[in-house]
User: What shape does this take?
Amino acid sequence: MSTASSVPAVAAKPYVEIRNGGYYVINTRVSLDSVVYQFQEGQPPENILRSFPALGTLENVYGAIAFYLANRSDATPQSLQKNAPELYAKLMAAKRTHQLKSH
Assistant: This one.
């Protein structure tokens, strides 16, 4: 019979970091808001990875989504608008450009 003490401890891998006042997928220039926006629009992780190949792996996409789901109150557009207004303005401009191109 196996006990919990015989299971090796596994450290959680970080997928998101705070940099320049915003949240980014670790070791990339991809903002968490970029991933979350597509996730909220119903895009599957595979499409998000195709949109942002710099993410590298599906693991990073799922890690970013998991971070967002676990920390919604801290990683929202409203918190970015308050805490990183320049980044928020850039993201909203990119969103508007994307919406214009898709119509």
